[in-house]
Amino acid sequence: MNNKYEVVIGLEVHSQIKTETKVFCNCSTDFHSQPNTNICPVCTGQPGVLPVLNKKAVELLVKTAIALDCNINKKSVFARKQYFYPDLPKNYQISQYELPFAEHGNLNISVDDQIKNIGITRIHLEEDAGKLLHDIGARQLDCSLADYNRTGIPLMEIVSEPDMRSPQEAAAYLTALKNLIEYIETSDCNMEEGKFRCDANISIRPVGQKEFGTKAELKNMNTISGVEEALTYEVQRQIEVVENGGKIIQETRTWDPDEKITKSMRSKENAHDYRYFPDPDLVPVNLDDNFINDIKANIPELPEKRKQRLIQEYGLTEYDANVIISDKALVNYYETAVNSASKETENTAKPIANWLTTELLGKLNNAKLTIKESPVKAEYLGQLVALISKDTISGKIAKIVFEEMFNTNKDPQTIIKEKGLVQISDENEIIKICQEAIDESPKIVAEYKGGKERAVVAIVGLVMKKSRGKANPQMVNKILIDLLKQ
Amino acid sequence: MNEIIKMSATTLAEKIKNKDLTSVEVTQAFINRAKEVDPKIKAYISITEEYALKQAKESDKKIASGKEIGQLEGVPIAIKDNILIENIKMTASSKILENYVAPYDATVIEKLKSSGAVFIGKTNLDEFAMGSSTENSAFFTTRNPWNTEHIPGGSSGGSASAVSAMTAPLALGTDTGGSIRQPASCCGIVGVKPTYGRVSRFGAVAFASSLDQIGPMSKTVEDSALLLNVIAGYDKKDSTSIDVAVPNYLDTIKQDIKGLKIGLPKEYFIDGLDSDVKKSINEAIEIYKKLGAEIIEISLPHTDYAVAIYYIICCSEASANLARYDGVRYGFRAECDNLLDEYQKSRGQGFGPEVKRRIMLGTYALSAGYYDAYYGKAQKVRTLIKQDFENAFKTVDLILTPSSPTPAFKIGEKSSDPLQMYLSDIFTISCNLAAIPGMSIPCGFSQKGIPIGMQLLAKNFDEQTMFKSAYSYQQSTNWHKQFPNI
After folding, report:
1. Is the terminal CB of chain A with fewer CB neighbours within 10 Å at N or C?
2. Cα nearest neighbour of B96 on chain A
3. Mutate which of A46, A53, A87 to test chain B, going by most B C-beta atoms within 10 A?
4. What integer best gives the mean pLDDT of chain A?
5. In contact, A324 and A331? CB cutoff 8 Å
6. Which ranges in B297-338 belong to alpha helices (H)?
7. Is B370 in CB contact (< 8 Å) with chain A?
8. B80 given a catalytic annotation
9. Taking the alpha carbons of A231, A236, A241, A243 in that order, is the dihedral positive or negative?
10. Residue at B295 is within a domain
């Protein structure tokens, strides 16, 4: 990247609040329902209907705001944001303008092991719009179909300060935000289902300049890596414009994930005038201290804190701790595994972290599975590591067992029994096998005795082969050398 | 003339309950009357004969079986056609909703159903309740039963005319800036705009949400009190309805008013007030003095601004409230091959000129750069008007004013001059801005025999004082016992 310019990025995230019912009516928020089955007069904007606020949505938004260290406004107001579109039944969206529920928060992100604090400008509550279909599969329709199931689903819009200075920081912010929200379970953050969406404001300015440059707003990025790609493209585009003597114009641009470019949607002149005004159908919401304190008291351990605990309690490295806390399901998996192993033996926390981050995550990744879908139960991974730790099986055997666990969902004990994989740690047994191996390898023995110490490796290999990998490798080493020296 | 149609709703309810009359008999009498005179006055958009007779039969069955009955069991009522009754057409007197069938019951309709009321028909109004004469109805203009050359007032002109012409003993209207009181005044009946939040707005087509209220219309004060008993109360479906206990308005209605302090706001007794109106109001004041009330001149200093800020607020809210009528999901749609044309043509052809005028005014007032100067400023002045009343009610219990500056004018007289038309609501508008209750009761006739009304205004949630004052007056006068010769 050109280092004459500094990049300035602010993000607006729309995260679907995890409620059973919509924000202003009693319709279900189920994502998988048939089109237009979760609808009623209120969310389809029939004449005469009135919105009634879903308190649960406010509670979950406030919970998120507290986790993001925001000030909660004691009084907040809903506003109508007006624009015409067929996915918006009332042709205005109930949102917030002045006096949102929360303001002035912040979130730590980490990029290249550097911690950076990103400001949160505000969090407000609004209703989602419906979905329009212009084609069915490959068939282009000559009309548009509207599905209002999504209309009125509560969203929290989380607006950041323009604090990010690179696309990588933007991606790190989104990852951290998504992770935090998943920890407190106020949203599913499922990006594929549109439950966590992001728009980005981006501008560049010469290094050292204080004023912000003219920004472009980017839309239609459906993954975190998509956001990073789009921003990276946009930085280059803006630099090229400026370097070629042009001027950045304020506009909204859309990311085309196939072409991997951003395209102009509309310029500032054509920007909507949303004509916000306070919604007269909804009274201002007054949140009392009890309401806020009750929510505060029920905030679970947040990622940052949990990371510190993992480092202190289990002696994990910062790196491993970061990987593990990056997903609530993952850290829960980890701690379940550790608890399970600790019933059997000690000092398993670190090896479990290794098994988890290298073996299991690698395999899950290849199989395109999430940690929640892991065929290896957390308890079983704990047991497996305990078995290694107790020398019941060797590390090498453990990999075979693990492979089998992954393929069959079985617990390690069962697999070891079925396959007869218990480690041979009986000294006499090992001496017997070692002696056989020595007897069968006179040439190698001669080499060893001739001073080529590394030749012993070949005999170890033979021992392992003879024991079908079950011989305790440390014992084999020691016994072989003892025998050879006799 | 059938005697039944001259009876008050209170009498009818009593007679039906005591089996002196059946509901079918009563309902049929009003339907017959409507069939006879409605072609001359056109109060109804639809007479729901079949529906009403079915309800009447059910009421009679209920009474015969000795089951518990409601306060309005078997009594017919006409409903302004901007209130939804499930499975019945609801047009709001607009082409854009000409064939719209209501998918649900308004809360007031639910309450009326459980009180046993019988829905006799849907009454005409100015399109979307915007107007003071019913001349803005997309279908036809309703006539004043006292003189069919004259307007019945508006926007609830159909309901007022229906009650006045004895085609219904009761009616529901809606009042945003005088739409119940002004037509009640024009047609010589009682019309009540309850305190904002007293009656649920759920299921009444929104015009200006912060001003709209549903209210009773009837020949007698008692009947309006009875009807308010049924429809009042907090509704969880309307966040702006207020959880204040509903008294039985009939319990206190007969209390005397000795020592009651009645304020006459000097700003309402202006030059240019019609001399017949002035005379009738002065006579009414004399009657109140005789009844033992103390008459005090008061000042409501911000009265002059009421009409101006009313039109900013109601148009702004209307511009958003009416955005949903776009032909996409229901209502009139002009088929076009692109979205923008479809919006423009559906709304362009579906709305009448007054509705369009108000949508444009409101859209302008809320636009970026104008909001503070118009909507923002209007809200501040609204607070001052509220304070005017708060101050006034520190010294008086009730405020008395003319309901309208002139008796009902002739059809066509003001339709080409919207400003003149807007001024016919000059005395009723402040009440909505201040959210207080107000009512109009007949207090005389002009020399040409057109009814004149006086307006009584009370403190928030003090409908009781208003009712007992109006009741005392009606006991001392005969205006409500006059019937138009139609």
Report:
1. C
2. A47
3. A46
4. 90
5. yes
6. 306-321
7. no
8. yes
9. positive
10. no
If you average pLDDT over residues B381-407, what whole number do you get? 97
Q: Is B113 a catalytic residue?
A: no
Query: How much is the average pLDDT of A68-83?
Result: 96
* Domain interval for residue B61: 3-260+397-481
Minimal Cβ distance to A48: which of B106, B239, B343: B106
Average pLDDT of chain B is: 96
Active site residue B95: no
Q: For B368, which of A273, A280, A283 is closest by C-beta distance?
A: A273
Would the CB atoms of B329 and A82 count as touching at under 8 Å?
Answer: no
Please report whether residue B286 resides in a domain: no
Residue B483 three-state SS: coil
Q: Is the pLDDT of residue A1 over 60?
A: no
B234 touches chain A (CB under 8 A): no
C-alpha B241/C-alpha A154 separation (Å) is: 23
Residue with tokens 């409903």: B79
State whether residue B470 sits within 8 Å of chain A by CB: no
What one-character-per-residue DSSP string does B234-275 give? --TT-TTS---PPP-HHHHTT---TT-EEEEEGGGS-TT--H
Nearest CA in chain B to A24: B237
A281 contacts in chain B (CB < 8 Å): 206, 209, 239-240
User: d(Cα A198, Cα B486) in Å, to the nearest integer?
Assistant: 67
> What count of CB pairs under 8 Å joins A to B?
96
DSSP assignment of A187-230, as one string? ----TTTTSEEEEEEEEEEETT--S----EEEEEE-SHHHHHHH
Distance separating alpha carbons of residues B331 and A148, to the nearest angstrom: 17
| Residue B206 included in any domain | yes
Number of domains chain B is built from:
1
* pLDDT tens-digit map of B63-77: 999 999 999 999 999
Of B103, B237, B317, the CB nearest to A46: B103
CB B333 within 8 A of CB B327: yes
Contacts of B343 in chain A (CB under 8 A): 84
List chain B residues with CB under 8 Å of A44. 329
End-to-end CA separation in angstroms for chain A: 66
Interchain contact B210–A (C-beta under 8 A): yes
Q: Best interface-test mutation with B: which of A44, A76, A98, A275 has the largest number of B CBs within 10 A?
A: A275
B218 belongs to a structural domain = yes
pLDDT band (50, 70, 90) for residue A2: low
pLDDT tens per residue, range B200-252? 999 999 999 999 999 999 999 999 999 999 999 999 999 999 999 999 999 99
Q: Is residue B140 within 8 angstroms of chain A, CB to CB?
A: no
The CATH number given to whatever domain includes residue B237 is 3.90.1300.10
Contact A25, A51 (CB under 8 A): yes
User: Chain B residues with CB inside 8 Å of A24's CB?
Assistant: none
pTM reported for the whole predicted model: 0.89
Query: Range(s) for CATH 1.10.10.410 in chain A?
Result: 427-485
- Is A277 within 8 Å of B106 when comparing Cβ atoms? no
> Percentage of residues in chain B with pLDDT exceeding 70?
100
> Which band of pLDDT confidence, cut at 50, 70 and 90, is reported for residue A344?
confident
Best mutation target among B333, B355, B366 (most A Cβ atoms within 10 Å) is B366
A455 — pLDDT class (breaks 50, 70, 90): confident
Length of chain A: 486
Tens of pLDDT along B298-353? 999 999 999 999 999 999 999 999 999 999 999 999 988 889 999 999 999 999 99
Residue B1 has pLDDT above 70, yes or no: no
**In CATH, what class is A427-485?**
mainly alpha
In DSSP notation, A344-389 reads T-SS-HHHHHHIIIIIIHHHHHHTT--GGG-SS-HHHHHHHHHHHH
